[in-house]
Amino acid sequence: MSSEWSVQKISTLGDFDRGKSKHRPRDAAHLYGGPYPFIQTGDVTNAYGRITHFRQSYSEAGLAQSYLWPAGTLAITIAANIAETALLTFPACFPDSVVGFTADPRKADVRFIEYLFQAMRKQVKSHAYGSAQENINLEVLRKLEFPIPSLNLQTKIADFLTLIDDRITLLRETNATLEAIAQALFKSWFVDFEPVRAKMEGRIPEGMDEDTARLFPDALEESELGLVPKGWRVATLADTFDINPTRKLSKGSMASYLDMASVATNGHCVEAPIEREMGSGAKFQNGDTLLARITPCLENGKSAFVDFLAEGQIVWGSTEFLVLRPKTPLPHYLGYLLCRHQAFREYAIQSMSGTSGRQRIQNDVLGRYLLAVPDIEIAAVFAGVIEPVQRSIAANHQSTQILASLRDTLLPRLISGQLRLPEAEAHLEAVTT
Q1: What is residue 113's predicted lDDT score, i.e. its pLDDT?
Q2: Residue whose C-alpha is closest to residue 22's, from 52, 57, 54, 67
């Protein structure tokens, strides 16, 4: 540790207080128009370090018993997911399960304090108490002490770590945009039939060249699904998809395993699988789509596209995954886009049965879902458009994993003074060039 670092209580660098404090004045609350943003524990834990939106508003009457924290406050959870942190980007109120820390700008960079909590979270959690639900006392937080560098070095370290986090955020936002584009194209071509409707009205379909536009018919016809493009066939999901296709893995052998927690509620990418002895579960390979078939995972949106495996590799996962794979001529990624389509999800949810809290999709019911199936030429063109998008999303996700792994490796060493900043910058350059 450098001579610039000295062991200090964090409370000497700013102020801690609970979110709901009757003894606190309303301060500048009257400067902000109501209703007031109200931050919950989940908003902190799912914020990736920055709270940029909120789910609830606080009434003016409620604010009289709560403190309106300014932008730049560090929110720290003290119950359930203890010591999760995120910075406010707007003034907001907290419940009792969240503590606020405001840094003294003459002594501390609040971003450094946030990274300090990230690096020392396990140590902070060691002070928790309770069995049914762990909590940590506010006074414990006030007594925490760690090696702290000069304000100048705090800012430099925070700038470096923020640079990595900003790159990760940009890649995630890019992926969200790319997937939204793919979803919009899927809906336009295969749900709303916009190219066909444009030709019926004598317009040139938007966003496609003349050769592609010529592939679409210029009329709709009645079907059991309603109006569909003339010449397209209507078929069930069971006819157009393999549902839980057969995959072979030897029971008892070691194989990559994906659990439900590794699948996100948005975006097609997953956390890395772990090695585990093969037991009972879904089996899948690249090109398959995973759909959570149990409540509440299905309602929460858990779905994924498998594109993270080696060629020919088969892995297994939770028994609560339903595996879908489009049949020719439909491209593989269309399976994932369908699983994100609202009408399909609603149908899947309605197909569930079972006891309360343990309801599951019924495969035979889901298999009766109707789709309008294009000819092979349109399917091929669609594949040519969306597959590069899917590959870009996968590549961006891989980059975020590399950057996040680097940050998690460097963070505790930087925050403790074991690693100097120039060395950390060299590591970053090595993985990004």
Answers
A1: 95
A2: 67
Q: For residue 283, what are the β-bridge partners? A: 316
Phi, psi (rounded to 5 degrees) for 341: -75, 130
Q: Tell me the pairing of strands 36-38 and 303-305.
A: unpaired
One-letter amino acid for residue 428 of the chain: L
Task: Determine contact, residues 83/117, Cβ cutoff 8 Å.
Answer: yes
The C-alpha atoms of residue 293 and residue 302 are separated, in whole angstroms, by 9
* Cis amide linkage into residue 374, ω under 30° from 0: no
Please name which of 433, 409, 404 lies closest in space to residue 269, comparing C-alpha atoms: 404
Task: Give the Cα-Cα-Cα angle 38, 39, 43 (nearest 5 degrees).
Answer: 145
Please say whether the beta carbons of 138 and 99 come within 8 A. Answer: yes
| Backbone angles phi and psi of 30, in degrees to 5 | -70, -15
Query: Which residues, in sequence order, are bridge partners of residue 37?
Result: 57
The vertex-141 CA angle with 140 and 143, nearest 5°, equals: 65
pLDDT in tens, 240-273: 999 999 998 988 889 999 999 999 888 999 988 9
Query: Which residues, at least 6 apart from 342, have a Cβ–Cβ distance to it below 8 Å?
Result: none
Give the integer Cα–Cα distance in Å for 265 and 282: 19
Alpha helices in 341-375 (DSSP H): 342-350, 363-366
Residue-wise pLDDT tens digits, 94-129: 888 889 999 999 999 999 999 999 999 889 988 888
One-character DSSP codes across 293-304 = -BTTHHHHT-EE
Q: At what angle do helices 333-340 and 151-190 cross, to 10 degrees?
A: 100
Angstrom distances, CA of residue 139 to CA of 76, 77, 122, 128, 238: 13, 14, 18, 12, 60
**Residue spans of beta strands (DSSP E) within 54-120:** 56-58, 74-77, 85-88, 98-103
The helix (run of H) or strand (run of E) holding residue 413 is: helix 376-416
pTM of the predicted structure, to 2 decimals: 0.86
